[in-house]
Structure formats: structure tokens, C-alpha cells
TrEMBL record:
Regions recorded as binding DNA: 32-51
Molecular-function GO terms, alphabetical: DNA binding
Protein name, as recorded: TetR family transcriptional regulator
Keywords (A to Z) from UniProt: DNA-binding, Transcription, Transcription regulation
PROSITE patterns documented for this protein: HTH_TETR_1, HTH_TETR_2
């Protein structure tokens, strides 16, 4: 019978949750390995054995953060209209960055306040770019279905959402209360373009011109 590997002496998921909070509070550069080890309840060699170096631990922490704290993105994308999609995203984000049981703000913004190595910073940018593209695709479909007007720019609308959500994270870290951020979210959605009523025949954008 082959040798059985010794199980880890700590709960990997719980340790990773602790690392998320340290990176969230202090950023990538400000989170020392000593602080991470203390919060995670392990020694430095155990961190290296389980996760690799600090950059690899940060990557794992960001993935964990997205899985546990950004479910509102998928929920927003599933809304039936573009305006409801935008509102659900912005209100969901306003609530996520003001949760009383977590540090204020957003890990993907707070961790980059003092940028670390280029790989860490690019991973944060890639995460934002991925969310941007998912909303842009959703808004392209809305244009095709007639839910957004033909002249609407899906990329610009997606960029508006990402820019506002980043601003919400900064304002939350500054102490802006949840109610104020939700009010700003709804104010922004009030000027969001709309097409014809849902349920009408879809149109092909920018092909309805007449002489």
C-alpha cells in the first residue's frame, strides 16, 4: 500500500478568507507575510506550501473574493431589461461595498491603492475588464432586442457601470453610508437609455433608415 499524504494542519478555505480580509484592508503592498500568517493562523512555510508566494496567495484570495462577494454581478446580468440590469448591478455593488461584516470598499480597488508588482495589478484590471465585457455583451443583446435604442453604445454603458462601481468602493472606504450610494445608483439609472417596450419585435440596430 502506498504512503498516504499527511493532511494539512489548517482549514485552507478559512485561512484564505482571512487572507482576503488582510489584502482588503491593507492592499497588496501593505499586506506583509507576517500579517497574513498571523491572520491565517499558520506559519510562513505553510503559506508557501499551500498557496505559493505572496502573489499567488493574492491571486487565490481575489478568486475567493469574487466567488463569495460578487454574486450580484450574475444576478444583475439575468435581469430582463438593460435598465433593470444596470440598477441591480449598481445597487448590488453599493450594498456589497458597505457590508457591516466586511471592510468598507472593494478588494479589487483597495488592493490596488498602493500597487504591487505588475502581475498583481494586471490581474485586477483583467477582472474589471471581464465584468465590463459581460455587461457590454448584455447591452449589445438589448440593442438587438429593441430594449436599448439603436444609437446606444454598449461599451460606453458598460464603462459607466464599472466607473461608478469603482467610485462607490472609494466613497465607501471614505465612510459614505449605504443609503447615499444607493441613491446615487438610482440617480444614474434614471438617465439610462431605454428602447421600445419589452416584448416588441426585435430590430436590427441602425438599419431602419429611410430616404
Amino acid at each position: 500500500m502506498g504512503a498516504v499524504g499527511r493532511p494539512r494542519a489548517f482549514d485552507t478555505e478559512r485561512a484564505l478568507d482571512a487572507a482576503v480580509e488582510v489584502f482588503w484592508r491593507h492592499g497588496f503592498e501593505g499586506a506583509s507575510l507576517a500579517a497574513l500568517a498571523t491572520a491565517m493562523g499558520v506559519n510562513k512555510p505553510s503559506i508557501y506550501a499551500a498557496f505559493g508566494d505572496k502573489a499567488q496567495l493574492f491571486h487565490a484570495a481575489l478568486r475567493r473574493y469574487v466567488e463569495r462577494n460578487m454574486g450580484y454581478v450574475d444576478a444583475a446580468l439575468a435581469r430582463p431589461t438593460a435598465r433593470e440590469c444596470a440598477e441591480a448591478f449598481l445597487v448590488g455593488n453599493a450594498r456589497a461595498v458597505t457590508r457591516p461584516d466586511y471592510p468598507p470598499g472593494c478588494l479589487s480597488v483597495q488592493a490596488a491603492v498602493v500597487p504591487g508588482g505588475s502581475n498583481e495589478f494586471s490581474m485586477l484590471a483583467e477582472n474589471r475588464a471581464d465584468i465590463h465585457e459581460r455587461f457590454a455583451q448584455r447591452f449589445r443583446r438589448a440593442v438587438t432586442e429593441g430594449d436599448l435604442p439603436p444609437e446606444a453604445d454598449p461599451d460606453e454603458l458598460a464603462g459607466l457601470l464599472i466607473t461608478l462601481s469603482s467610485g462607490f468602493a472609494i466613497r465607501a472606504a471614505d465612510g459614505t453610508p449605504r443609503g447615499s450610494l444607493e441613491a446615487i445608483a438610482r440617480r444614474a439609472v434614471a438617465v439610462f437609455p431605454t428602447g421600445r417596450a419589452t416584448g416588441t419585435e426585435p430590430v436590427t440596430p441602425k438599419e431602419n433608415t429611410h430616404d
